[in-house]
Specification:
The protein is an all-alpha fold and 88 residues long. It contains two helices and no strands. It has one domain. Helix content is 90%, strand content 0%. It is rod-shaped and about 100 Å long.
Length: 88
């Protein structure tokens, strides 16, 4: 037998339901926050990969410009044209 009167029991039940709703809401908010964080981390990784690729390309272009002279370019073009002539 319960020692609470019916009004107090009803308030306790309502309070417990409210606590469950809040707890469930917190669980959902945590899950949403966790998913959002994962998405942001993935987006940041993608951005970093793109930036690293861009910087690598720029660096390679700079190195090639500094180290490849006109004779090298002519030799590369002539070699490419010879390959194309021999291709089926």
């Amino acid at each position: 037998m319960s020692t609470l009167n019916p009004g107090a029991q009803s308030e306790t039940v309502a309070h417990n339901r409210k606590r469950c709703d809040v707890s469930g809401g917190l669980h959902i908010r945590r899950r949403v926050a966790r998913d959002t964080i994962r998405q942001e981390v993935a987006r940041a990784r993608d951005d970093l990969h793109r930036e690293a690729a861009r910087l690598s390309t720029e660096l390679a272009e700079e190195i090639i410009r500094k180290n490849v002279n006109d004779d090298d370019r002519k030799r590369l073009v002539d070699g490419y044209l010879r390959e194309m002539e021999g291709a089926p």
